[in-house]
Amino acid sequence: MIGSCRKVTLRSLWFLGRQFNKLPETLGAEPMPKRLSLSASRAFRFRQQILSLAACVICAVVLWLPNDALASIGQVTLSIGFSELQSASGAKRPVTKGDAIEEGDTVITSANGHVHLRFVDGGLVSVRPLSIFVIQEFKYSPQNPSAALIRFSLATGEIRSVSGAAAKAAPERFRLNTPIVAIGVRGTDFFTRSNAEQTLATVNYGAIVMTPFDTNCRPDALVGCDGQRARVLSADMTGLALVYRTGTFDPGYQSLPNPLPGQRDKNDSSANPAQDPSKQNAERALAARQVATGPEDLVSPSKLVWGRWASTPLPGDQMSVAFRDAMLGNKVTVGDGYFFLFRTPETVNLLPSLKTKADFNLTASAAFHRLSSGEIAAASVDSGRFSVDFAQRSYETQLKVSASGIPNQLIEFRGLIDPSTGIFLGSGNNADSNLAGALSLDGKQAGYAFRAPVGSGSLQGATLWGR
Prior knowledge:
Elements: H1 2-5, H2 10-27, H3 40-64, H4 67-71, E1 74-80, E2 83-86, E3 92-94, E4 100-101, E5 106-109, E6 114-119, E7 124-127, E8 132-139, E9 149-162, H5 165-169, E10 174-177, E11 181-185, E12 189-194, E13 198-205, E14 207-212, E15 231-234, E16 240-245, E17 252-255, H6 277-287, E18 304-308, E19 321-322, H7 323-327, E20 331-335, E21 339-343, E22 357-370, E23 376-389, E24 394-403, E25 409-416, E26 423-428, E27 434-439, E28 445-454, E29 457-466
Parallel strand pairs: 9-10, 18-19
Antiparallel strand pairs: 1-4, 1-6, 2-3, 2-5, 5-8, 6-7, 7-9, 8-9, 9-12, 10-11, 11-14, 12-13, 13-16, 14-15, 16-17, 17-20, 18-21, 20-21, 22-23, 22-29, 23-24, 24-25, 25-26, 26-27, 27-28, 28-29
């Protein structure tokens, strides 16, 4: 039909107009009764001619529409500040509200640019300042949503994405690539911040799966990104972000600041000095007639506890408690998908003021051996040391770990501590080793989860330390 419509000429359209102008006379408009004797066969042929020409006119109009009217997969619903829309051919133009968006387009926002996109399946993407967001592929049919294919890319910056009908019907066919990880969704509203060294994601609704790129999980594929390195973050994992940094083996879980930076909690103690917990802690300390030998003696003792994201503990784990039990009255700091380290909230953070070196004692541990087959066997942390240089904001640690069927392993890590949060990460004596941990904010306790490859499997576990 489309091919035949390309033969439509202006003469054909002129002829059609003349026939419509003659139609009242032809069909016998009063006062011309002699025309009412038109034969049935002639009338049928005439109607066919009119219908054929009308169809061609419709096709011609469609063919004369701009290309973007046919290829559009959505539109810009909001544009604040200056941003650019770059087509697949490389042509750029300023973004304005109402612009059509197409497969292959790139949204580039400036320092004051903010763009909202609405796709034909109802999906939403908010592209925040200083971001580069690419619509690599977008294929969707309302008649067959399960065959949809969506592939986005965030080269740098921040976006918020709300799943539409395509991702809800075929979540396994949705992919957001950053420079270092793939993110899949499960009917989701999520936020992502990324650059060449780090990707951070949080979830408002549903769940996401984050997997680092490797030989199994490739940017150009949809499969292979659900293996052992994949980590899931769901909305019910309150207060957590999923983070992957270049040089670490797996994505890790970290707590989100609450209130967020730049915001003040309505119950901020500075608004009501009489309810300031730091003063209450100091008063309790004095009432108990404690001897204050340092600033850490003026606040209540902190507590670290390991929670697990599993109903029953894995072999070798006699230390963790159920996630919901660990969460009561505490805030999560870091995690690896199974172990999550919770900390008693403190109003006073003493870590920036501490300048000493300290050695910690191993107080509790749990470990297991994950075989290449996926089987998990108990392991044991036989001994270890952990030391912190508060002035240099650094740490060093060493563990001796044993498990059936493998030689005893010596695992070592070192790295820097963020004094504002007490969180520390580290790489070990093997490129695929990684560690994530936190100090109590009084500097008296520490805990970390670790992973180290052994043969074709790995040793994983968690520790608690005190002084």
